[in-house]
Amino acid sequence: MTSIIGIRPMQAEESPLIDPAIARRQRENRLVLTLRILLAVSSLGLWEWGSGRWFSDFWVSSPSHILHALWAMLADGRLMSAVSATVAVAITGFLAGVILGAALGILLGLSPVIARVLDPYLVGMYSLPRVALVPLFVLWLGIGFEMKVAFTALLVFFPIFMNTLSGIRSVDADLIDVIKVMGASRWNTVAKVFIPSALSWVFAGLRISAPFVLISAES
Amino acid sequence: MMLPIVEFQDVSKVFFKGATPIQALGRLNLEVREGELLAVVGPSGCGKSTLLNMTAGLMEPGTGAIRYKGQVVAGANTEVAYLTQKDNLLPWRTVEQNVRLPLEMGDHRFLPEKEKGARVARYIGMVGLAGFEHHYPKELSGGMRKRAQLARSLVYEPDTLLMDEPFGALDAQLKLMLQAELLKTWEGSGKTLILVTHDLTEAISLADRVIVMSGRPGKITAIADINLPRPRDVFQIRFQPQFGTYFEELWAALRTNMAEGEEIH
Known about the structure:
The complex is a heterodimer of chains A (219) and B (265).
Chain A: H1 20-50, H2 63-75, H3 78-110, H4 112-127, H5 134-141, H6 145-169, H7 173-181, H8 186-217
Helix pairs in contact in A: 3-4, 3-6, 3-8, 5-6, 6-8
Chain B: E1 4-17, E2 20-33, E3 37-41, H1 48-55, E4 63-68, E5 71-72, E6 80-83, H2 95-100, H3 113-126, H4 142-154, E7 160-164, H5 172-186, E8 192-196, H6 200-206, E9 209-213, E10 220-225, H7 241-264
Parallel strand pairs in B: 3-8, 3-9, 6-7, 7-8
Antiparallel strand pairs in B: 1-2, 1-4, 4-5, 9-10
């Protein structure tokens, strides 16, 4: 096609030019990695060398002692039994917290009246330092498995609950309108939009609450 | 035979801003003809979207009545499809699963599975998304998402499409391409299409009739029949001399309304 006003196609350049910034960035990445490793090795080395010289190895152990102890506990099975107890508490508490948090989040997200009724109490409970509840939990449940599970569940509950609630509330009102004229029932909107939308937020909540799990399960 | 498919009779609507009532729609009388493409233009806040919401049965009129095929609209009108400015695709579903969504609900869920599959494939093909069935919305471009949205609206074969600034957020070239595709899909389909837009060029290029609405309270201040031949080419049509005449006259009507609307604020 010929153009009246003289627009003409340009030919693409064959080989792209190589920006030196790429090489600079690669060098920087290598430097960062090297320095990171050096930092770890030198601080461990300093610790090892200083232990028993600059400070008493009774109060501050040394990396080699820790490795020995780790090895010994691994060999006689003490470490594995402790780890498995912690993991059992973590998993049970985590699941309980996630299920309760997600369920209550969905329920409150779908019924604004209940949400308004419970809102001040939930905020009150949320601002309570969790550690303050530990003595109560000990009184009710002892210091065994149940108490640790309950405490872990409590820590996991709030981030999951808050996120699920936000997930339900973030659903676009337009989307619900669009789906209603497709013939959606209330149940359809819940099952096909609200719950799946909340679930993606639950997963975000999982990432926030996962670190809490180990902290409390070790308690 | 030109039966009105949608009728607005003495419709008005008040919204509340806190305790203050705001007259969103004045007295509105309108007949939408079956099979026409009606464009609604007007300043923001003139009640264009309210008009669509009422046709869809998502909002009740304050006074008056809206009839769809002679029946007073009460509750969601499932014979229409609603297309919003945002594509509103479900991010956890693929294109195919998104397009299938309407067939999982209402009376459509009783369709035989074979028919469902055939329809999904047909409408995905019609909007040019064949080969992208298993992509998720975030893997698609803005234009492709709009196409998926259109396929999802067509798949349950509604009689009427309600579009609320469907191409409002897109860049100019993409807008033109999607307008052309929309026309190709609509022309000959027999469907009624009500298009709310703030783009006068879009309104004239696509519509059989353009209605101009005033700012609050929203009223119809001008109606124009666009007698440009079909099928239309949205790329060429704006260079026709008649197009310029329509544009000038409708722009004049629209501009008066905008000035009025600003005085109210």
